[in-house]
Amino acid sequence: MEQLQSELRRLYIAGSDLAADDYRLERLEPELRERGERAPVFKRLAEGVAALAGPARPEERAAALQDVSLLLNSVLSTQGNTEVGNVGETPVSARAESRLPGLATDRSSRELAELRQALYASGSGRYETVRSAYKNGLFRDLRSLPLALRALGDPYSEISDLAAERILPDYGPGISALLLDGLDIQGGREEERKLQVVQRVGIGPEDRISLEKIIRAAEKGSDKIRVAAIVCLGADPSQEEKLLEWSRDKKKPVRKSAYAALTVLDSEASRERLYEAISGPDAPLAAEALAGLLSPGMAETLAWLFEERLRNGTENGSLSAEDLQPLLIALEKVRHPALERLYTDLALNPAAYPSIQALNERERGSFLRNAAYYLRQLGTFEALELVERLAFTHPLLLQQAIPMARGLLTPSEVYERYMGTNGDSSRLSSALQSVVILVLRNELYPGTVTPRRLPQAEIEVGWDPRWLDWAIDQDHAQLVIGLARPGNDRLVPYLEQAVRRIGRAGSRDEIRYFLDMLEAGLFDEDTRYELFMRLVEARNWNGDPAMVYRELDLLKRVPAERMDETIRRLEALIEGISISYKKKTLQEVVDALRARRSADEGDRTNE
Fold this sequence. Notes:
- The chain has helices at 2-14, 23-36, 40-53, 58-78, 109-120, 126-135, 145-151, 157-167, 174-181, 189-201, 208-220, 223-231, 240-246, 252-265, 268-279, 283-290, 296-312, 321-331, 337-348, 354-357, 361-378, 381-391, 398-408, 411-419, 430-444, 456-462, 466-474, 477-483, 491-505, 508-518, 525-538, 548-556, 563-575, 580-606.
- 67% of the residues lie in helices and 0% in strands.
- It contains 34 helices and no strands.
- Among the domains are: 2-106, no CATH class; 447-538, no CATH class; 543-607, no CATH class.
- The protein is flat.
């Protein structure tokens, strides 16, 4: 037996493919068959060894290696062998249903050693190694399974979270029995994660052993283990009575977990209990549990309750934001015909929903944004018209309408829809015009941390050129910069006037956008140079100029024919600067230009 254990350990390290026609395995088979005449378990071991060494596909051979190892571990366990569980570090289990099909043993021992080192050692870089191993499919190797289980308890949370959320769920339902085999129902975070994985992948309906372990954890476990276990029971209709009882537990986390399980169960009794919960004091708790898990039937029920409140308020009187919030949370990710009908009717017949008018302006706007966002996801022209109807009562909703229109209409149609054929925006209220400006600014300068001007090609393809004239009429320099394109006779004169204002009082972002525009290839070299120098000369060098390093770099790279003029203009600028280190900074640019000029003259002389 020890010799078979040694051979299996060797194959776990070297790979199961090397088992084909292996004479050492073939030599062990007769001895095992002989023992099999006295004990059937040895006969099964002999058959497993024969399958392992015989002709087979790689995945079949890997499965055979696992079967033989599990069976051998079981035999050694009954014999009191102290090395039980050491064969390839495979978890000890005699249950055949714990086998994970589709795993191979085809990865190199070097790769496995790197992964093992990352999970058994400490220090930096371990997460990247584990994540790379997952991305490259290393955990699909049978020998990595014990390492995946170990990762679940790693003290570095990013590794343990990766194991719980990605690595172990990828094994499918077969992993559940392995996780539950060693579950400590009084344990800590690692045991919680085991149950979270089980909840993600589920267990087979025939696996009553695993189900009983979950029920025991839900009844007898520590508080956190109970909460994690209860959620796992939603897929088993036989647990309905327990879940209904737990949904009335005095502890909030237990009730929330029971609500989530009842949502999965989706029986008539569970729907009645969930409706009761979200209609009463437990509404916030129930809403969090329901979010993202609603069945079509429950979604329709909640949509009906939602409509009833919007039309008639609550039983206690007028509607408040607190009354709506739980339903908004529960229905946030739902797409259902009942909600579509509700939001459509709300846009067409706002007078039919007087409760909404009882909300204050901020609360009403928040609710209408939810309605507009839902309609926007429909992506139809009819839905666009509904969003626009909502926007005329709450102008900020144009932030949903205009991007939606850009996805449905041509650039010319978008412009004419909001500005008219002649760009006469006077038909829009001042509030709507200010929102149009806000929307254009967000669309032209995407990004949250460091917004950047759209690439020039996207501006010219995606935006009607009439927007540029409109922005000039509005005297909105940031929009003009974002919409700038060749062929507009008003652009350069406007920029020549605006650049001084931008240089003197522009924000860091606005100056960055201006420089992006100059480098986009819109202008001839003379125009580009003059606009840039006017920006430099307009800057408040005695204050706190932004983007100074980018400007200095551009100054050093002016064309050779512009070096003398640049030196002259910078020296005139330096004379008016009172802060010594800034004078020195610009003087260094002048010196660099002179050195470059001297080098160019030397090159010409040598030629």
